[in-house]
Design brief:
Blueprint: H1 8-15, H2 20-27, H3 31-37, E1 45-48, E2 67-71, H4 75-80, H5 89-97, H6 101-112, E3 118-122, H7 129-138, E4 144-148, H8 155-164, E5 170-174, H9 181-190, E6 195-197, H10 210-225
Parallel strand pairs: 1-2, 2-3, 3-4, 4-5, 5-6
Protein name: FXL22 protein
GO cellular component, one term: cytoplasm
InterPro entries: F-box-like_dom_sf, F-box_LRR-repeat, FBXL15_LRR, Leu-rich_rpt_Cys-con_subtyp, LRR_dom_sf
Length: about 230
């Protein structure tokens, strides 16, 4: 039996086991498989492991999307998560190339995926509070928001959760060094039903301008001398 002789339900089941590239390659072979590839039921879950993958045309975004994960585990993450004033020209140039890649993609999700239930971001150093705010506003059914090592996330995101995260039941802000203990306490107070986790976040040294860091270092040295 040829694969195209299978009914739509069977083909969708088979496609569900394939990665995005394989699905796309199969879709190029005939109209029937292209229709399966374009079926919204196939795209309720999307996982990405690099910002480069977000620019490919091997997936579909739409109202059927329920679960989205963008987890970037690479040495390059360390470069993107360095404070801007500490980066050399090469590092700045590298970051500039994909500075808006994830944010632009998430804004597209805001416009096209209102039924999103869970979002996981890890190592996305360029994602901002404004981006998460728009997601919370446009995806009212969001139940799980996991942010790990997203260094530009601050207490503004936590405030957005208290204002627009009515459906939220799980919030992780692990290793987000610009989140404060005060911000976390506000979430616990205003959203007691949210399971909050913030491993290392409020205990890490937050970003600050070079002159502020210098003042802190001088003050520390004075204390040691005394």
């Amino acid at each position: 039996m040829h694969i195209t002789q299978l009914n739509r339900e069977c083909l969708l089941h088979l496609f569900s086991f394939l990665d995005k590239n394989t699905r796309k390659n199969l879709a190029k072979t005939c109209h029937k498989l292209l229709e399966v590839f374009q079926d919204p039921l196939l795209w309720s879950l999307l996982n990405f492991h690099s910002p480069v993958e977000l620019k490919k045309d091997n997936f579909l975004l739409g109202p059927a999307l329920k679960h989205l994960s963008i987890c970037w585990y690479s040495e390059r993450v360390k470069v993107c998560n360095i404070e801007d004033w500490r980066k050399n020209s090469f590092q700045k140039d590298f970051c500039k190339r994909h500075e808006n890649t994830v944010s632009d993609f998430l804004l597209d999700v805001c416009n096209r995926c209102p039924n999103l239930l869970s979002l996981t971001l890890s190592g996305c150093g360029h994602v901002t509070d404004d981006c998460i705010l728009e997601l919370l506003k446009n995806c009212p059914n969001l139940k799980s928001l996991k942010l790990e090592n997203c260094v530009q996330i601050t207490d503004h995101t936590l405030e957005a959760v208290t204002l627009h995260g009515a459906s939220l039941r799980m919030l992780h802000v692990d290793f987000c060094r610009n989140v404060t203990q005060a911000g976390l306490e506000r979430v616990r107070e205003k959203c007691p039903s949210v399971m909050l986790r913030a491993e290392r976040s409020a205990n890490m040294i937050p970003d600050s301008k070079p002159e502020k860091k210098l003042m802190l270092e001088k003050a520390s040295r004075k204390v040691v001398q005394l």
